Amino acid sequence: FRLHGSTAEEPHILLECDSSILDSIQKHLKLYKIRRKVTITPCPDLSLWAVIPGEQPGHASSLPKCADQALLLTPDPRAEVMGWRLIAKKGANLSEIIPGSQVGDVQDYHRHRYKQGIPEGVKDLPPGVALPLESNLAFMNGISFTKGCYIGQELTARTHHMGVIRKRLLPVRFPEPLPAAGVPEGAEILTPAGKRAGRFRAGGGELGIALLRLAHLSEPLCIRLGGDTVKLSASTPEWWPKAAAK
């Protein structure tokens, strides 16, 4: 997020990241700043909130465009269904920033994004494993096809323009109660014929996200856990571009 108001100001950019890899992200950024006069530092005095839209018509228009206590209140850049990102000082009164709002917990947030198939953090997007196009980042303002060179640019651009992406991250649902231990991350997903359809990435309760071959999208799917077989189904998010699942 750009925090400076005009081009005359020194640029200030606020990055949101998975807190579990804060140290490694700082090391990575410092490695590439070369001799630029750039200061990279965490902001422990700030808190991040996801403002999830309600189901009533007109809810979006009732959100205040700015609030005195908020450092930042802006639409989530990934997808409209994710609502807004709110960044404020720790201890700020949320009911004053967004009147009529209800404070949920982090699991409410994760359930919402799993329903929408929105990946986030190193569990959903494991470093060195997740490919940007298979992770749907082109749908979420996560890839530029016009900027200069970056690692993997040639392969990413060629795959995008050819339009052949055989696997994608998809929201999945388990119709039956799960075993007490849950479904392990990386568990293999199979078709009824035993073909490999993909892998489970992460989830909570009956919802999750998985990397699946689109050819098996409409088939019954399952995960074998020990002697048990756990059924699941996948779907295409409504916010995707129309031709994305083809």
Automatic annotation (TrEMBL):
It is found in: Mitochondrion. Keywords: Mitochondrion, Transferase, Transit peptide. GO terms for molecular function: transferase activity. It holds the Pfam family Beta-barrel_CAF17_C. The keyword Plastid does not apply. GO terms for biological process: iron-sulfur cluster assembly. Transmembrane segments: none annotated. InterPro entries: CAF17_C (IPR057460), TrmE/GcvT-like (IPR027266), YgfZ/GCV_T_CS (IPR017703), YgfZ/GcvT (IPR045179). NCBIfam families: ygfZ_signature (TIGR03317). This is CAF17 transferase.
